[in-house]
Amino acid sequence: MTTFKEQASLDQPREAGLAELGAVVERIRSSVESVIEGKPAVVRLALTVLLAEGHLLIEDVPGVGKTMLAKALARSVDCTVRRIQFTPDLLPSDITGTSIFDQNRRDFEFKPGAIFAQIVVGDEINRASPKTQSALLESMEEGQVTVDGTSYPLPSPFMVVATQNPVEMEGTYPLPEAQRDRFMARISIGYPSPEAELQMLDVHGGLSPLDDLRPVAHADDVQKLIEVVRGIHVADDLRRYAVAVVAATRTSPELRLGASPRATLHLLRAARAAAALDGRQYVIPDDLQALAVPVLAHRLLPTAETQLGRRSTEQVVRDLVAQLPLPRLGR
What we know:
Layout: H1 4-8, H2 15-33, H3 40-51, E1 56-59, H4 66-76, E2 77-78, E3 81-85, H5 92-96, E4 97-102, E5 107-112, E6 119-123, H6 130-133, H7 137-142, E7 144-147, E8 150-153, E9 159-164, H8 177-181, E10 185-187, H9 194-203, E11 217-218, H10 219-230, H11 236-251, E12 255-257, H12 261-277, H13 285-296, E13 301-302, H14 304-308, H15 313-323
Parallel strand pairs: 1-9, 1-10, 2-11, 3-6, 6-9
Antiparallel strand pairs: 4-5, 7-8, 12-13
Helix pairs in contact: 2-3, 2-10, 3-12, 10-12, 11-12, 11-13, 12-13, 13-15
């Protein structure tokens, strides 16, 4: 029977590439964790999404460090960064850009909007109207913006890190399904432990730790690491397992909307990045299982009965993963 390692030898990225990835990621991780105390799993997931060429949605109550995490990640990489504060009066053209008539040239000139950056921090994205939120759809999926019939490519690498408050809070709009589906993963930071909160009082009591944060990696380094992640091997049985996990959400009686084929692609890409972060040249079932909830749960819509039973989509995904048999490959 073929083992994971034997199958991985068919398409192995170079050991040097994984070693370089580990060194660069460790610098970024240390930089971000100097600001976000006591949340190593959250920081790891953010780095996983970065290396998997995805977009990250950070959802939690106010004051737990959502924007701080997004800013720390952006400042740790030497690349172009733009911040968009989403408000009810924000217009789609503020994000994408607009064409302005130039009197000297007697022609229209395109003025790029805030989306033209390598890392875009969207703060409180669900405080803008659904029309404005939808201005991100093309850029997040296709890496370009179309204005007045002309398409403009976005820089590479490109990542949107958006924060939002829970939908039940005052003055928020739920994200459209198409918008949620474009985010590779959703994470919640949660409240810090008493020890981490006490340390935060010492670290954040004076100046913001973001003021001393300096880039520890370049955008070119991140692009090279992305290429390494693309070469991580995924066995055929694991591909079928990923499809089975996503397909289970479409037939679950607890859900009225399951995950899309885009979710399957995102799950596989995130698993590759997770394997690379662990220094492996191949994906294992644990990678897919660990990422199923953050990658799939935010795309799903529960039935009324599920909501009445106070079961979250995260719980539904965990139960579905637990019920599915693991792929039978030799270790």
